[in-house]
Each structure stands twice: as structure tokens, then as C-alpha cells.
């Protein structure tokens, strides 16, 4: 009871002055203009719905369509890559076939040593008697006698030999340059040796490379 | 028009309303017709127009060697076709400019890639037909180059093709498939259920541009590729063995030759080489008899290599030891009419059983092993695997001819001790020696290790239990005796490999020709290494050589393959010596 009374008192305080005369809990309320506000919200919502939903649907549809074309493109790409893989696989098969390796090894002058020697690490024992393979061993089997119609690539031994010669020439040239450089440096060092005792040795300078790690001053 | 004039709005309204109702009724009726009456027909018509059903082909599985190297696989090849009725000059985009390509130029470009004359191409693309095949089975590399030409009237059909990247390596074992992809021989056929996949199917609707309409897939059944077959074969060793056999079969002008390498303690067949052989890529180029696997399918009388079985039988059954003495004459009377003799004339020799094997004496083995009752000897032959197919169960495999000892005549009963009157396959002879090398335990030969699915799990083939044939001691004694054959034997010595203890036995077998024997031989040498603890057995057979008439022609290929085998498998040279056994007295 006391709670109801307190509530009524609170309501009485909040009500506008023109309702102050009303003392009972039930009262008539005029239909205010507030009814039109939810209606407009609904209409706007519906309108937005009618516009946005089809737009979203359209967007989704477009995205799906694009996805389908993208999928078709990717499938074509996959097919293309599968063909590439097949071509490379067959080339690899050919080059790594026993027939090709055997033939290339023979052309390169490689011979199989018929005197294998084994080292046993555990007790450091040697098994077998080392003996160099000779050219006579190379003629043991001769040419390839096991046909392979699937072989569509062959190792070009001439190319390998040319590459080997080029690498050798490069190594020789590099060594010559290094020797020449060493010789020049030695001469310079000998020339300046006389003045070295009186000369004040400059402090090494660290050369910075683009604000990174300082390059070695000896370089 | 009168009713529509102002002044009579009610009538006008009624008429308009009537027309509107009629229109609605008509529309509703058409709707009912479309949706209900003709619905199914219309749906079928639409599907026929737009739907597409295609097979998703399953790839046949690969055949792999013991190291995972591919011996057989499926790739795609392309049939190159043209539609002559639409063959015309066309425009090709060349960078930013366009170039017109004439028919003659296009034909020349195609011809250059396909390596055929341009006039041939030109003839094939001329006409009014809608289809003309220019070339079949073009590989992927040339297909791609043709595609790059962007010729609008060229069309391609992709077709699966079986290829064998190592060519004739293990060709007799692998078998081959026909042009329609059906397995015709060898492993391809016997393991067909493992290798074959299940084709899938996909139905969908497509737009006018041929692109699948999203969410239109009606039925999809994914293709299930075939599984891989894993073999026990080491393709490198197989290649080497085939090279050796091809050389010696050619040099000795023999009908054929075979070499079988067996891993003693597992029964795995590491190599099963034959010459002549077949390249499964072009199997039709090989003779029919060279397409099969003689190692499993051809039988012959083994000759003296079977003396090892007779000697092991005598030792195991307690009738002899390696030192058992015998006086071995050159000739020996077996029945009232029949004599047997040794391969060369000699005075009566005082041999031990070891000496009998070393000299390969027919009379000596008959006198010693002949003491063993025939029923017992026959039981041992059965236990060694004679007369029955091996567990490999290779397509068309033969079990050899053993018959029943009860129906043998006295001569056959005797001659069976040195390999006459009964016949075996090369794989059987290899496993007689595997038994001896493996302490008397015969293992089932293993060629197919199993079927390996996409999850890389190997489903092993079912392997029968090993068979105890002779005791460990008898097996060891037999190996000791065979070691003397290679150490001291005239022919055996030529099979020796420097630094290794080798044990083995030669065989020079006559070949049946009608009722008697012909002038050609089947020569063989079967051995094992290292003799102190055998790891590998090698059985070499050369059939009907024309430049040699005894097993001296079989030891060089044996030696060559054994050397390679020991080197490849890192078997260190022997550090022990054979035991001393007298060969004569």
C-alpha cells in the first residue's frame, strides 16, 4: 500500500498541470499525432527495403557471376598448368631414364670401376683392393640395348662439354687476375715499404653503405 | 465506340471490367498451361537446350618400382582435327598489330610442328566436310605449340595414353594396355582392379557463352583415380641386368636369356630381366613370344642346377654329408637298356659329394642321391616348389612339369636328380637356391608389394607362409659345397667375383626335341653371395646359344650382374674364408 501511494505521488509530480485534477489511476488519453511517426518509419523502412534488398541481391548476383567466370578462368589455368607439368614431367623422365644417363655417362668417358672398395668407419677398416678403372671397363656393355620409345629428350653431351670448358676458362681467367692483383699489390707494398716507417698510418674508416651495416674498411 | 462516349460511364465501366477479367482469365489459363499442362515437356526442352553432361575421367594408377620410380603412368595426348567447311584465312593479333594468315601459311605452320609435309595438311583441311583428322596422338608439347597458332578452325580431342618412361625396363613384367585403355598383359592386367579408377559424372546448365550457370549443377559424382601398384623391382638393377642379358643373348646368338635377382631374406624379386624384351610403349613392334614374361611362363628342363636340390635332399635326409665318398664312372647303367653318362669322358673318379657338385657328375649324384627313396626325393622336390605356380601368380604363369613319381619310369626316376624328365620356370630355379641360401626356408616370391592409394597407404598383397624345406645345417652344408664349385670348378671359377665369397652351380641342360633331345642346350648359372651369409641369389639362363654349348656361356653374364649387384647394394668384400672340404679322395 505504501509503495502504491509513493508511486502515485511520484506520477502526480511528473504529470503536467492540466491533469492535476485527475486523481484516479485510469484515465482517457487522446490519440496523439505520435501514431503517424511509426507509420512513416515503416514506410521508409519498406521503401529502403524494396530498394536495398534488390540492390544487394543484384550485387550478390553480379559477384556470383563474376565468381563463375573467375572459376572458369582458374580452371583453364589449372588445365594449362597440368599440361606444363606433363611436358616437364616427360622431359624429366627422359633425361633421368637409365638409357639417357648410361649413354651420357659413356659419352663423357665415365667407366664403372669393377673393383669397389669400402671403408668401415667403426673400426676404420678397408675392404677390397683399390684399382683404377680403365678404358677397357667402359666397353663392357657397349651401346644401349634396352629401347625406350618414350624418351623424347637426350642429354646433349657436346653442350655439357662446352659448358665445362667455359667454366674451366673462367676459373683460369679468375686465377690469372687474382695472381696479377697479388703481384701488383706486392710490388706496391715493397715500393712503399721504405716510407712506411716514417709514414703515419691512417685510422681505418668505416664506409657506410646506405645507412646500413658499415662496410669493412679493408674492402 | 458508342459505349465509350461520355454519358454512359456505367456501361463503359462494365465493359472495361469485363475485358479486364477476360484478360486475367486468359493469362491465368496460359499460366496453368505453362506451369501444369506443358510443364514437363517445357522443362525437358529447356534442359536439352541448355544442359550439358560430361564424364569426369578417372586417371589410371601408376606402376612404381621399389624406390618409387614411375614405370608406367597415364598422360594426355591430343588428336588434331580441322573443320574444312570453315577453313578460311584468319586474322592473328601480333602484338598491337593484326596480321592476316592465309590458309597455305597456316597449313605450313601446322606441318612444321607436326613434322609432316605441308601439302598433306593442306589436303586434309580442304573440302566441305565438318571433320577431318590431321594427326592422332600428338604429345602435349606439340599440342601447346599448335594452340599458340590460334587457328580458329583447328580442334583438339584429348585422350589418355599409357606411357612407360623407362621404355623396355621391366617391359616383360609390366605388360601393356590397348589403344582403348584396356589392360592386355602383365602387371597391367593382373593388377587391373587396383589400377583402374571410377569415372565421375557432372550435369549442369550452361549459358549461351558455354559457361556453367551458377548453382545449376544437377548431379555430380567425383571421379576416383586408380591406385598405384608398387613392385619389388629395382629399376636401375633391372636395366643393368637387361643390358647384360641383351649383350650375351646377341653375342651367343641365343633364342633368349633371363636373369632373376632375389633378395634372400625377404623373397623380393629385385630384377627379372629378359632378352629379347618388349618396349610397352610400342609393344606391337615386338614379336608375340617376346611380349610375355618367360621367367614366369616358359618351362625347360633345368639340368645340373637341380643337382643342388638332389644333394641338399641327400644331406637333409641323412643319406650323405658333403664328404660322402663315391666312385663316379663316366657311364652308369640305370636299367637293362638305359645308361647315363657324364658330359665329358673320364676314368672313374674318387669324388666326395662336394666333388660331385664341383665336377657336375651325373653318375656321382645318381649313386649318392639315388640312395634316398624315390618317394622321399619326390616329397623334397615338391617342398622345393617344383610342379606348382609361385605365389606371384603371374598372368599365364606355369608351375612346371613334375608329374607323379609313381608314374615315372626308372630312367626318369634317376635322371630327375640331375634335372632331366622334369621341367621348371626360371623363377622356380631361382627360388630353389633362395631356399638353400635362406637356411632352408623357402619364401614366397614377391613381385607386387601392394596397392597404394592416394593416402599413400600401401595395402600389401597377401603372402603365404614360408615353407621349411631342409634344416639349417643341411642348407649350410649345401652352401659350403656350392662355394667349392666357384672356388675350384672349371666353369664355376669363371663366375667368381674378386674379393667375394660366391657359391653357385652351373647347368647345361639338353632340350627336348620330339621324343629325344636336340643339339641345343639351355645353359645356366645360379649362385648366391656372400657365401658366408647369403644376401642375394642370381639365376642366369641362356636358351639355345649357338656359339657355346655349355654353361661357360652363362657365367660371364652372371659375373657382370653379380658385380653390379654387390656394388649397388654396398656389400663389402668378404673377410672370411670358406671351410675346407675335400672334393676327392
Topology:
The complex is a heterodimer of chains A (219) and B (585).
Chain A: H1 2-14, H2 36-95, H3 98-107, E1 118-120, E2 125-127, H4 135-138, H5 157-196, E3 207-208, E4 214-215
Antiparallel strand pairs in A: 1-2, 3-4
Chain B: H1 9-37, H2 39-50, E1 51-56, E2 63-64, E3 70-82, E4 90-94, E5 97-101, H3 103-114, H4 118-125, E6 132-138, H5 140-148, E7 154-163, H6 171-174, E8 176-177, E9 183-185, H7 186-190, H8 192-195, E10 200-205, E11 219-221, E12 228-231, H9 235-251, E13 256-263, E14 269-275, H10 288-291, H11 294-297, H12 307-316, E15 325-328, E16 331-333, E17 339-341, E18 349-352, H13 353-359, H14 362-369, H15 374-383, H16 410-415, H17 426-437, E19 441-442, E20 448-452, E21 458-460, E22 467-468, H18 472-488, E23 503-513, E24 516-529, E25 536-543, H19 555-568
Parallel strand pairs in B: 2-12
Antiparallel strand pairs in B: 1-10, 2-3, 3-6, 3-7, 4-5, 8-9, 10-11, 12-20, 13-14, 13-25, 15-18, 16-17, 19-22, 20-21, 23-24, 24-25
Helix pairs in contact in B: 3-4, 9-19, 12-14, 12-18, 13-18
Amino acid at each position: 500500500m505504501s509503495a502504491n501511494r509513493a508511486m502515485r505521488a511520484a506520477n502526480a509530480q511528473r504529470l503536467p498541470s492540466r491533469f492535476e485534477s485527475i486523481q484516479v489511476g485510469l484515465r482517457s488519453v487522446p490519440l496523439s499525432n505520435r501514431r503517424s511517426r511509426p507509420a512513416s518509419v515503416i514506410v521508409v523502412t519498406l521503401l529502403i527495403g524494396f530498394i536495398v534488398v534488390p540492390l544487394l541481391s543484384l550485387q550478390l548476383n553480379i559477384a556470383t557471376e563474376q565468381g563463375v567466370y573467375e572459376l572458369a578462368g582458374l580452371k583453364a589455368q589449372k588445365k594449362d598448368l597440368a599440361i606444363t607439368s606433363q611436358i616437364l614431367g616427360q622431359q624429366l623422365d627422359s633425361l633421368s631414364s637409365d638409357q639417357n644417363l648410361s649413354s651420357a655417362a659413356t659419352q663423357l668417358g665415365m667407366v664403372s670401376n669393377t673393383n669397389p672398395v669400402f671403408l668401415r668407419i667403426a673400426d676404420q677398416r678397408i675392404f677390397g683392393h683399390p684399382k683404377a678403372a680403365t678404358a677397357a671397363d667402359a666397353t663392357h656393355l657397349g651401346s644401349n640395348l634396352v629401347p625406350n620409345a618414350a624418351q623424347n629428350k637426350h642429354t646433349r653431351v657436346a653442350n655439357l662439354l662446352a659448358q665445362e670448358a667455359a667454366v674451366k676458362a673462367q676459373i683460369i681467367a679468375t686465377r690469372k687476375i687474382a695472381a696479377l692483383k697479388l703481384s701488383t699489390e706486392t710490388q706496391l707494398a715493397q715500393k712503399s715499404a721504405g716510407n712506411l716507417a716514417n709514414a703515419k698510418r691512417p685510422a681505418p674508416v668505416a664506409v657506410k653503405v646506405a645507412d646500413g651495416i658499415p662496410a669493412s674498411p679493408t674492402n | 465506340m458508342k459505349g465509350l462516349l461520355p454519358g454512359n460511364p456505367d456501361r463503359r465501366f462494365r465493359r472495361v471490367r469485363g475485358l479486364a477479367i477476360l484478360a486475367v482469365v486468359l493469362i491465368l489459363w496460359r499460366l496453368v498451361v505453362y506451369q501444369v499442362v506443358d510443364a514437363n515437356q517445357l522443362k525437358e526442352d529447356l534442359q536439352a537446350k541448355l544442359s550439358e553432361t560430361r564424364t569426369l575421367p578417372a586417371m589410371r594408377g601408376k606402376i612404381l618400382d621399389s624406390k618409387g620410380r614411375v614405370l608406367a603412368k597415364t598422360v594426355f595426348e591430343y588428336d588434331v582435327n580441322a573443320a574444312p567447311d570453315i577453313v578460311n584465312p584468319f586474322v592473328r593479333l601480333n602484338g598491337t598489330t593484326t596480321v592476316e594468315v592465309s590458309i597455305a601459311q597456316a597449313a605450313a605452320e601446322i606441318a612444321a610442328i607436326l613434322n609432316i609435309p605441308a601439302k598433306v595438311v593442306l589436303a586434309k583441311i580442304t573440302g566441305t566436310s565438318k571433320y577431318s583428322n590431321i594427326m592422332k596422338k600428338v604429345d602435349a608439347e606439340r599440342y601447346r605449340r599448335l594452340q599458340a597458332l590460334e587457328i580458329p578452325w583447328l580442334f583438339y580431342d584429348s585422350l589418355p595414353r599409357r606411357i612407360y618412361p623407362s621404355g623396355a625396363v621391366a617391359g616383360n613384367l609390366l605388360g601393356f594396355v590397348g589403344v582403348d585403355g584396356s589392360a592386355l598383359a602383365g602387371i597391367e592386367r593382373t593388377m587391373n582392379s587396383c589400377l583402374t579408377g571410377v569415372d565421375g559424372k557432372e550435369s549442369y546448365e550452361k549459358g549461351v557463352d558455354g559457361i556453367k550457370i551458377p548453382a545449376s549443377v544437377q548431379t555430380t559424382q567425383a571421379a576416383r583415380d586408380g591406385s598405384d601398384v608398387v613392385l619389388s623391382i629395382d629399376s636401375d638393377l633391372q636395366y643393368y641386368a637387361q643390358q647384360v642379358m641383351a649383350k650375351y643373348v646377341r653375342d651367343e646368338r641365343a633364342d633368349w636369356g633371363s636373369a632373376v635377382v632375389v633378395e634372400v631374406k625377404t623373397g623380393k624379386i629385385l630384377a627379372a630381366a629378359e632378352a629379347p624384351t618388349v618396349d610397352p610403349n610400342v609393344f606391337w613392334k615386338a614379336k608375340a613370344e617376346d611380349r610375355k614374361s618367360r621367367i614366369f611362363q616358359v618351362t625347360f628342363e633345368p639340368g645340373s642346377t637341380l643337382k643342388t636340390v638332389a644333394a641338399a635332399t641327400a644331406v637333409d635326409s641323412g643319406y650323405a654329408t658333403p664328404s660322402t665318398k663315391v666312385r663316379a664312372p663316366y657311364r652308369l647303367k640305370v636299367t637293362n637298356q638305359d645308361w647315363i653318362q657324364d658330359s665329358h669322358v673320364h676314368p672313374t673318379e674318387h669324388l666326395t659329394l662336394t666333388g660331385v657338385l664341383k665336377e657336375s657328375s651325373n653318375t656321382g649324384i645318381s649313386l649318392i642321391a639315388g640312395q634316398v627313396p624315390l618317394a622321399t626325393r619326390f616329397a623334397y622336390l615338391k617342398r622345393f616348389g617344383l610342379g606348382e605356380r609361385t605365389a606371384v601368380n603371374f598372368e599365364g604363369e606355369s608351375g612346371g612339369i613334375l608329374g607323379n613319381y609313381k608314374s615315372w619310369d626308372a630312367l626318369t626316376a634317376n635322371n630327375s636328380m640331375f634335372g632331366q624328365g622334369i621341367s621348371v620356370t626360371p623363377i622356380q630355379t631361382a627360388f630353389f637356391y633362395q631356399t638353400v641360401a635362406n637356411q632352408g626356408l623357402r619364401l614366397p616370391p614377391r613381385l607386387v608389394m601392394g596397392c597404394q592409394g592416394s593416402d599413400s597407404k600401401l595395402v600389401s598383397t597377401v603372402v603365404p607362409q614360408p615353407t621349411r624345406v631342409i634344416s639349417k645345417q643341411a642348407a649350410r652344408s649345401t652352401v659350403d659345397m656350392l662355394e667349392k664349385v666357384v672356388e675350384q670348378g672349371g666353369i664355376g671359377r669363371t663366375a667368381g667375383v674378386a674379393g667375394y665369397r660366391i657359391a653357385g652351380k652351373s647347368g647345361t641342360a639338353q632340350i627336348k626335341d620330339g621324343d629325344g633331345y636336340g643339339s641345343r642346350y639351355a645353359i645356366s648359372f645360379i649362385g648366391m653371395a656372400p657365401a658366408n651369409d647369403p644376401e642375394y641369389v642370381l639365376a642366369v639362363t641362356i636358351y639355345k646359344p649357338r656359339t657355346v654349348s655349355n654353361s661357360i656361356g652363362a657365367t660371364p653374364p652372371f659375373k657382370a650382374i653379380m658385380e653390379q649387384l654387390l656394388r649397388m647394394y654396398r656389400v663389402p668384400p668378404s673377410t672370411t674364408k670358406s671351410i675346407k672340404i675335400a672334393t676327392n679322395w
